[in-house]
Design a protein that fits this description.
This protein has 2 domains: about 220 residues, Butyryl-CoA Dehydrogenase, subunit A, domain 3, CATH 1.20.140.150; about 35 residues, no CATH class. It is rod-shaped, with a radius of gyration of 38 Å. Strand 3 and strand 4 form a beta hairpin. Helix content is about 55%, strand content about 10%. It is built from 7 helices and 7 strands; from the N terminus they run αββββααααβααββ. The protein starts with a helix and ends with a strand. The protein is α+β, with helices and mostly antiparallel strands and about 290 residues long. Helix 1 runs antiparallel to helix 4, helix 1 packs antiparallel against helix 6 and helix 4 packs antiparallel against helix 5. Strands 4-3-2-1-5 form a 5-stranded antiparallel beta sheet, with helices on one face. The protein has a two-stranded antiparallel ribbon with strand order 6-7.
Length: about 290
């Protein structure tokens, strides 16, 4: 049991790591300075796209021009800022046709991906308490709750990672086909896919731990249910004390149980007799 709880603690630490990485991925671009400024999804050459800067970076909350190692000319911030060059800069002949003809594809892929990541992060936070509880107490129902929450977190974070990857890889290829330089934000994609891997390991272990806890509980219940059977004699029959074995070995245990705890009355004492004669040692002798 201690081994399973020790392993559960290791996976609890991995769960915290998955939560931290998902948190960083969803906060990418929330601030204009610091580490979050380097967490972008796509950087591409957008020169000639209407009023777009020469190089643009897309974040979760805004898009910004990037020049000489610093960001500038950022758009207004809002949650789930969509990736849509047509909406961001207006239609232009220099823009790849896919951004105009398939505008909704990029728009909804990027927005839904952010929403799914947020939902997955919520399930990660909700799973922290039950996973921590299983470290200290092998409760089957708590382990079951943590397993459900972890699989839900894995589902939504994986869905978000797939949507983000599909959106921005498709966009990068569109820029490349148009002869423009474009690259993915390696940090953001590393964070979100590492979160997927960590959550997968946590969910698998939680499932195994829940099964092991359940098996141990069933075995414990069986031992408790047979705890009353403490006789050392032949267990093929029910009553050995008085020799009136009236049930065979195939009798259900519930009948065996009631037979064992039944109390028999004490044997009747022999009838008393009045002595009328005495032997030579003055000991009473029963009449013949």
């Amino acid at each position: 049991m201690r081994f399973k709880q020790s392993v559960t603690f290791v996976f609890f630490v991995l769960l915290l790591g998955a939560g931290l990485l998902s948190f960083l991925a969803i906060l990418g671009g929330a601030r204009d300075k610091g580490v979050l400024r380097n967490l972008y999804w796509l950087e591409a050459n957008t020169s000639g796209f209407g009023n777009a800067p020469a190089t643009t970076r897309w974040y979760n909350y805004e898009w910004c021009g990037y020049e000489d190692g610093s960001v500038q000319g950022c758009s207004s911030k809002r949650p789930a800022q969509p990736f849509s060059p047509r909406d961001n800069f207006g239609a232009s002949e220099a823009m790849p046709a896919t951004f105009i003809n398939n505008r909704k594809t990029y728009y909804y892929l990027s927005r839904v991906a952010w929403a799914m990541l947020l939902v997955g992060l919520v399930f990660i936070v909700l799973s922290i308490v039950p996973v921590l509880a299983t470290v200290f107490a092998a409760l089957t129902w708590v382990a079951s709750v943590s397993t459900v929450l972890l699989w839900l977190a894995l589902f939504f974070v994986t869905l978000s990672a797939c949507l983000y990857t599909g959106c921005y890889v498709k966009a990068r290829n569109a820029f490349a086909d148009n002869g423009r330089r474009a690259k993915l934000g390696s940090k953001n994609f590393a964070f979100i896919w590492t979160s997927v891997a960590l959550l997968l390991m946590c969910a698998l272990w939680s499932t195994i731990a829940t099964a092991l806890f359940g098996i141990n509980k069933v075995r414990s219940n069986r031992r408790d249910s047979h705890g009353y059977d403490s006789y050392d004699g032949d267990k093929a029959t029910t009553m050995d004390t008085y020799g009136d074995s009236d049930h065979a070995a195939g009798t259900p245990k519930k009948f065996k149980y009631f037979k064992r705890i039944r109390r028999y009355p004490a044997p009747a004492a022999p009838p008393t007799t009045m002595a009328t004669e005495y032997d030579e040692e003055n000991i009473p002798v029963a009449p013949r």
